[in-house]
Amino acid sequence: MTPPMTAEERAALIAARPDRTLDLLRQMLRVRRLEERCVELYSASKIRGFLHVYIGEEAVAAGVMSVLGPDDAVVATYREHGHALLRGVPASAIMAEMYGHAEGCCRGRGGSMHLFDAGTRFYGGNAIVAGGLPLAVGLALADKMLGRDRVTACFFGEGAMAEGEFHESLNLAALWDLPVLFCCENNLYAMGTALERSESQTDLALKAAAYEVASWAVDGMDVLAVEEAARRAVDAVRSGGGPHFLEFRTYRFRAHSMFDPERYREKAEVEHWMERDPIASLKVELEASGHLDEAVWASLSREVDAEVDAAVEFAEAGTLEPVAELARFVHSERGTP
Amino acid sequence: MKTTYREAMRAAMRDAMQRDERVFLMGEDVGRYGGGFAVSLGLLEEFGPQRVRDTPLSEAGFVGAGIGAALGGMRPIVEVMTVNFSLLALDQIVNNAATLLHMSGGQFSVPLVIRMTTGGGRQLAAQHSHSLEGWLAHIPGLRVVAPATLEDARGMLWTALEDPDPVLIFEHGSLYNVAGELADEAGPVDIDRAAVRRAGADVSLITYGGTLPTVLAAADALAASGIDAEVLDLRTLRPLDDAAILATVAKTHRAVVVDEGWRSGSLSAEVSARITESAFYDLDAPVGRVCSEEVPVPYAKHLEEAALPSAERVVAAARVAVGEAVGEAVGPRA
Ligand SMILES: Cc1ncc(C[n+]2csc(CCOP(=O)(O)OP(=O)(O)O)c2C)c(N)n1
Ligand SMILES: [Mg+2]
């Protein structure tokens, strides 16, 4: 694990760039509030199908996305609302997609688990555990072959590390020295299966390092640590340092999906992790250091709520893709790509 | 020019790599080894290790990487040594290549070509003799083609590479050594249409890929006994060329579908169903089928021969269709 910053180092870091730190707080809050609303809308039957929220893990996406450039690519999982939002997909397009509306980012064909956006090079939204890793390898291979200095960031849960596709992908990326940043979101559970019940080696960075991939474990509840580790890794990958692997130690506060009765873990464990809520922690820290007061928080909070309200309004006003369009996008329409 | 199916495939790959910088070949042993079936022999020397890329044994990994590279602007040709090994990459083929365009609402197309060897007949036993192209032809979002002639071996690849969506090319292992004349100027061919390989009036024999030579031999044998068979080569298994299928049935009023896949749930079942759906009143006889026996393909030569479609079985089925013989009860024997 990268050594945690000392209190003095943190204070200095925040003092040196209060605006950026405040922005990280804002980004995490955007994800949190959007997803809290998603859960409500699910209960109201506005959103259907599978819904997996990221609540508790926001620091990971917020930190990593903040250091990627516009030409970089992102590959994510079915727990990707936050990744899509922070990559720049408008909340309105995400919400409309979850409503199954034509105005959604995938015209209602993807839903919660399959958000895609060409404009921000957001390649989904993959609901097959580990299924996105080979894609990331290929995107990076194309960049390498075409001499572009772009980075592909690939997010996946620790559950993916038991899949063959994980091993194949790490080996290929290392063997071919490809610009991929592998971001493992270790929230300790794959549905109800705890890490130690699924992995012989629970030190995941060590496991990845077996492929000659530079690997670190990072406190995934601390957005500053995430940002710092991601920045170093992205810089290294971009400058030809080959693939890197970051294990973000995090925790999901909510159920795996809306169907999960959470029989596999103790309330006390959840509560213990909630004390490390990445948003609340950073807020306290910013307040203590005098960079956030009640008024600033209130306006930030209002701003974020307004974005979510507008997204819901947009989705509500959305339209249904005509059934006559059902068979579109099975094959490309002539003239593409 | 005298050539072979293998050489025609190789010429197609060379041509593609010369035409388009974005084209590259990757797969197990495509480079140093020269390809499991020697199709890519010599290409490494010509194009170098970046564009003729040996991969580790990681079917899901490199097929998925091909999808990613296609998304990233390349035009990969991924070679999966044989269709049996593609089972390890089915996740990538079915869950990613076939779906990304649709799931993304039209944003991400996957201009990828996957080539693989298929079929039995070479005493390779149960794990190396599958004809699973019918399975993959079940999947919307994929185009599935089966070159059966030298022209198609030479010409389908470039057209497939120009397709903005994933195309699977199935090369029957028994075809690689087929030799013949190919026009010097042979080039790209369409991958939409079926082709009549032999015109006839009495019965339509509908097939594709590795069984085309078998069926043509059967047609010759039938001609000797006065039955004039038409042979339709499907060429593209998805989407099927319905018009060509219905046209030949409208002409002969009798059809036998020959497919090396197993009969149950097969491509031949699909073709037969389409005929009964759309040309029922054109038919003068039930649609016949010649498929592989419903067993894992055995090793022993006589058993393998008994399991796969043969010219004799095609002749027998055609004779039933034209009413010169009495058919056995419809359905698999087992
Ligand atoms: C290949 C595959 N097998 C099983 C599933 C069903 N499934 C969906 S999510 C999940 C758990 C994945 O856990 P992890 O990778 O740790 O990600 P997390 O949900 O914790 O973010 C499982 C088993 C799946 N989607 N894909
Ligand atoms: Mg997990």
What layout of secondary structure does this protein have?
The complex is a heterodimer of chains A (337) and B (334).
Chain A: H1 7-16, H2 18-43, H3 58-65, E1 73-77, H4 81-87, H5 91-98, E2 122-126, H6 133-145, E3 152-157, H7 164-175, E4 180-186, E5 189-190, E6 193-194, H8 204-209, E7 214-219, H9 223-238, E8 244-249, H10 267-274, H11 278-288, H12 294-316
Parallel strand pairs in A: 1-2, 1-3, 3-4, 4-8, 7-8
Antiparallel strand pairs in A: 5-6
Helix pairs in contact in A: 2-3, 2-4, 2-11, 2-12, 3-4, 3-9, 5-12, 6-7
Chain B: E1 2-4, H1 5-19, E2 23-27, H2 43-47, E3 52-54, H3 59-71, E4 75-82, H4 83-86, H5 90-97, H6 100-103, E5 113-118, H7 133-136, E6 143-145, H8 150-162, E7 167-172, E8 179-181, E9 195-198, E10 203-207, H9 212-224, E11 229-233, E12 236-238, H10 242-252, E13 255-262, H11 267-279, E14 288-292, H12 301-307, H13 311-321
Parallel strand pairs in B: 2-3, 2-4, 4-5, 5-7, 6-7, 10-11, 10-13, 13-14
Antiparallel strand pairs in B: 1-8, 6-12, 9-11
Helix pairs in contact in B: 1-8, 3-5, 9-13, 10-11
